[in-house]
Specification:
The chain contains two helices and eight strands; from the N terminus they run H-E-E-E-H-E-E-E-E-E. By secondary structure, it is of the alpha+beta class. The termini are far apart.
Length: about 160
């Protein structure tokens, strides 16, 4: 095996930095602009329970994997989705079970970046003085977005 060694001078370092920026899609004075995506609420029947985590569903096969995974804990029959995965991607988040109805989870904003989709969510917990329903709730939030192969990541969009 041969090893190529490159001695870097100051001008070589600058050239490498500039080439790296261009290769990653950046150019001086022309930054990639992010924009907000419109997400449609997912209203179809999903699994009755999902482990805590984020989910990106790009195909019916992905959906079946999620159902199979959720059935290990709380068995349920899978539903057929009416989503056309050639046009839509289903994304979501689960924070598991909570002890009362004062907990909530909402995907509040979707931002398309150059290489990823940023999903900002709002997780609300009850304050000490809240009167809450005493029913266990499963916190899940799903939306459909235009079909994408970009990475999707979720961040807490605390207000």
């Amino acid at each position: 095996m041969h090893t190529l060694k490159i001695k870097r001078s100051g001008s070589t370092k600058i050239l490498l930095i500039a080439l790296s920026a261009l290769a990653s899609g950046c150019s001086p004075g022309d930054p990639y602009s992010t924009h907000e995506l419109a997400g449609a609420p997912f209203t179809e029947q999903g699994p009755p329970w999902l482990p805590t985590g984020s989910y990106v569903v790009r195909s019916k096969a992905d959906w079946k994997k999620i159902w199979k995974w959720s059935q290990r804990i709380k068995p349920a029959e899978p539903t057929e989705l009416s989503i056309d995965f050639a046009e839509k991607t289903l994304i979501g988040l689960s924070l598991g079970d909570k002890p009362n109805g004062c907990y909530s989870l909402t995907i509040k904003r979707l931002i398309e970046e150059e290489t990823a989709i940023r999903a900002e969510y709002l997780y609300q917990k009850p304050s000490a003085n809240d009167l809450c329903t005493q029913a266990q709730v499963t916190l899940t939030a799903f939306v459909t977005i235009p079909a994408t192969q970009k990475k999707v990541y979720f961040i807490d969009g605390k207000e």
